[in-house]
Amino acid sequence: MANLLVVVQGPSHARWAPACQTGAARGAASGVRLQSAADTLLLVQPMLVAAAQMSSGPDRVKNLEVATRLVHRAAERGAGLVGLPENVAWMGPEKDRPSAAERLDGPTLTRFAELARELRIHLLAGSILEAGAPGGRVYNTSVLLGPEGQHLAVYRKIHLFDAEVGDGVSYRESDTVAPGEAAVTAETPLGTVGLSICYDLRFPELYRALSRAGAALLTVPSAFTLMTGKDHWEVLLRARAIENQAYVLAPAQGGRHTDQRVTYGHALVVDPWGLVVARASDGEGLALAEVDPELLARVRRNLPALRHRRLG
After folding, report:
1. Could you read off the pLDDT of 212-231 as tens digits, one per residue?
2. Active-site hit among 20, 86, 130, 173
C-alpha cells in the first residue's frame, strides 16, 4: 500500500473549499504526506446523510424497487446524501456473479442516476458487479452520483474477501471478482469523500491514504457476514472514524440472501469522535444523521492526531 495510487475525482464545476481542492490534488499527484489536510476545514457545509439497509437477493427488479423506496424515504426526510449497500442490485450465488454483471452505463446505474437527478441528491450507489474485468471476472464497483445524475467517482474494491469465518461457507470473492488498483476520493459540495467497500474496512492503510488525500467523510457500503459482523463491524467502523478523525457512512446488507448467505446489517453513521450517531434497526430501514463541519473541525483542533503522525 506504500505506493497506492490515490485518484481524486469530481466535476470541475463542483463547489469546493479551495484548500481542500488543492490539498487533495497535490496529494494524489505527489504521494507525499499532506500536512495541511489535518488543519483544513474539509467539510464544506452541514448535510443530513442516510445509510440504507436492505436485503438484496437474485431478483434485480425487486432489489431496485426496494432501493428506490429507501432513497425516496431518505430524501423526504431531508437527506442530501444517501448511501446504498454493497451488492445493491444483485446478491445471489457467487458462481453466478459474472452473468449478473453489467456496464457502468447499464440499467442499475442508469436508474440510480435518474433517481439522483429527480431528487436532487448525492447518491452512493452501494456497489454493483461491473462487467469487463480481465480474465472473465468482474469488478465490485461503487459509484458516487451527483444531483445531475453524473458520476462523481468510480471506485473498484481493492481487497477481496477470501475467507472461512466459521459459518460453514467458504468465501472466495477473487474467483469471480478482480481487484481494483486505486484509492478514490471525490470532491463534492459537502467536502471530500473517500470511497471503500466492505472487506476494505480491515485495511487501515487504505483509509489513511484517503485521509491524506483530504477525505473527511468515508463511505463503506457493505455486506458483512453475520459471523464477522456481530464481533467486528461496529468496532472497525469506529476505529476508522477515530484514526482518521472523519465521519463514516456505512450502508449495509442485513438478512438472508441465499440458502448459505446471511448478512449482519446494522447500517451506521459514525462521527469523527468515534460515536455511533445513527443506527438502522432490524430489517429494511435507514440510519440518518447530520454531518457537522464544526464538530469535525473541533475534533481535529483539540486532538490533532493527524498532525502528530510520524509514519506514512
Report:
1. 999 999 999 999 999 999 99
2. 86
